[in-house]
Amino acid sequence: MDDVIKLSHGSGGEVSRKLVEGMVESYFSNDVIARLDDSAVMALGESGGRIAMTTDSYVVDPIFFPGGDIGSLAVNGTVNDLSMVGASPVGITLGLILEEGLAIADLNRILGSIRDACREAGVPVVGGDTKVVEHGSADRIFINTSGIGLVAAGLDISSSNAKPGDVVILSGTIGDHGIAVLSKREGIDFETDLVSDSAPLNGLVREMLRASGQIHAMRDPTRGGLATTLNEIAAASGIGITIDEGSVPVKEGVSEACELLGLDVFYVANEGKLVAFVPADEAQAVLEAMRGNKYGREAVIIGQVGSDHPGLVTLRTSVGGSRLLSPLSGELLPRIC
Amino acid sequence: MDDVIKLSHGSGGEVSRKLVEGMVESYFSNDVIARLDDSAVMALGESGGRIAMTTDSYVVDPIFFPGGDIGSLAVNGTVNDLSMVGASPVGITLGLILEEGLAIADLNRILGSIRDACREAGVPVVGGDTKVVEHGSADRIFINTSGIGLVAAGLDISSSNAKPGDVVILSGTIGDHGIAVLSKREGIDFETDLVSDSAPLNGLVREMLRASGQIHAMRDPTRGGLATTLNEIAAASGIGITIDEGSVPVKEGVSEACELLGLDVFYVANEGKLVAFVPADEAQAVLEAMRGNKYGREAVIIGQVGSDHPGLVTLRTSVGGSRLLSPLSGELLPRIC
Fold first, then answer.
1. Which of A32, A287, B124, B221 is most deeply buried (CB count within 10 A of its CB)?
2. What contacts 24+ positions apart, CB below 8 Å, involve B188-193?
3. What's the whole-number mean pLDDT along residues B232-245?
4. Are B96 and A57 spatial neighbours (Cβ–Cβ below 8 Å)?
5. pLDDT at position B41
6. 8 Å CB contact between B216 and B157
7. Minimal CA separation from B84 to chain A, in Å
């Protein structure tokens, strides 16, 4: 056990997971939190309704990057966490921590971006809180967004519900957000079209739920990337996942940037993509619904679920071999979200 | 208009209020947020139920202080914000921002404190998020707690609902939290009994609601102190408030510390106190209910509401005069919560 917090504790990978599972869960174990889904789902009194709740703090560096900023990222991230359990967003709250000396113009730009993101997602900001700390006690601006949403009767979408016979659908290219932020941070100018995929996915999920009542699991592969998300679902559902590497769409610029930087795109963060686990015979209907939405146009089947190798993710490589796709183990990209 | 964020923007007083009202509200105005209550109250679909939601980020310095720490403070603060609109807490989320190098022992101590505070309030942690930033990019630990609660049918408790004829009830002594934090921060050792009043008030509010269905407004006077809270209620309700200075309980040690430090106790933060506005003929029943709860034992009537001087708070001083009690205007105590 470490004595002090390290950057890797926040990476979204194994070390981070162990910190969260080992420490936080040991203090707060209950039925709701134990599911480790992107949002908690709770029954509401005697009404029969269920509400989803989620929270995320955003510390991304830089605060402005190609395709978005810390404001839109925060709104989209919270909208997406609600969407991943099938909840329709009802309201979000904003907790701002500002560093003394932050330019008011930057704050205005970020608030405008939050407003626009809320409009696109159709969710109101219902409350907020602003704290200011001395220069040097924070890095410009940190944003917490928390959100609640309503879960329709009959839905039970959870990382623990993927089943043998499901296919794995990915909504589009991977790695865009992580590479866009990294290129801006490091001052590397790969290509003009390298932009974050940050986007609200509630509209896409609404279309998917209309097409099928049989979506078993959904997640947006953020910190830790697609590999880590798939591993978490494999572990939570006790199933094995096989992914066909060649079927996973990656933009050419992202692929080149990963090669240059020595990164595996499967571990790079996304902020506007989802993976869905659905029975094979429902897949076509879900795919068609996704492709009709602007955030799902490139949706494809990338793999299958089996009962062999429970808890593991196997990658069938483009050259015909296969290897284990392990979860992110250490530090990859700090402050990517 | 300032160009950069100043510490006074986070003080909870006039400057902070203008920042919040002028900037944030201009971006996000809607019916719910416009009430500026401690929690947002929203109707839930067709069920007829209403849910309250609130968020707060905690950046208190020092993180451990007499009578509490940043963890229990965060839980109690969110429980209290829900309680102030009459909501029963259903769940809270934890957003942790950790500075690289934070001692794991400190984190464990804080998580344990959060767990204990949740137990006392009877509210589960239903979700969380952990981010780690580089050494120097935050100050040890910042905590966001967001919470949701259920609002019983028929309740309409709001800062905008105080009415002429109401009396103002205060649940106990003021200034304890601010002075406890300040004494620890400055290394001043006033007295051993100077401890924060940080406490969950949901049990107290439950007893009050049992005693009377006519509570018009409730607030916990945190940042900006009792004076700022009363001014906000006076403005939101369009009423005038008269406070009898001699009736407001202040511990001797707090009073002495304020004198020594040149602070006006009416502007010092509290974290386990509330003010309630109730019709005069309901006051005795509410007071008795409060005095039966450990967090309301010293509850007293401290003033009345009239229709004269709407938006203003008048203090009848102990020596027989009267003066205007204005809201906090600048910076008093940074990072008090």
1. B221
2. B188/B257, B190/B253, B190/B256, B190/B257, B190/B260, B191/B253, B191/B256, B193/B251, B193/B253
3. 96
4. yes
5. 80
6. yes
7. 14
Q: What is the mean pLDDT of residues A118-131?
A: 91
Residue among A49, A53, A128 whose CB faces B127 most closely: A53
- Of chain B, the percentage scoring pLDDT greater than 90 comes to 69
Partner residues linked to B241 by β-bridges: B305, B313
List the one residue out of B81, B86, B172, A134 whose CA is nearest residue B73: B81
Mutate which: A46, A129, A143, A148, vs B, most B CBs within 10 A: A129
Q: Do B129 and A57 touch (CB under 8 A)?
A: yes
The answer to whether A181 and A196 are in contact (CB under 8 A) is yes
Tell me which residue of A231, A244, A230, A318 sits closest to A275, measured CA to CA: A230
CA B272 to each of CA A111, B76, B183, B203, B336: distance values in angstroms, whole numbers, following the listed order: 32, 8, 18, 12, 14
Work out the burial of residue A285: count CB atoms within 10 Å of its CB; fewer than 13 is exposed, 13-18 middle, 19 or more buried.
Answer: middle
pLDDT digits (tens, 9 = 90+) for B307-322: 999 999 999 998 889 9
Closest chain A C-alpha to B121 CA, distance in angstroms: 14
Considering only CB atoms, B10 lies closest to which of A49, A58, A132, namely A132
Residues A334, B132: C-beta atoms closer than 8 Å: yes
**Residues of chain A contacting residue B100, judged by C-beta atoms under 8 Å apart:** 4-7
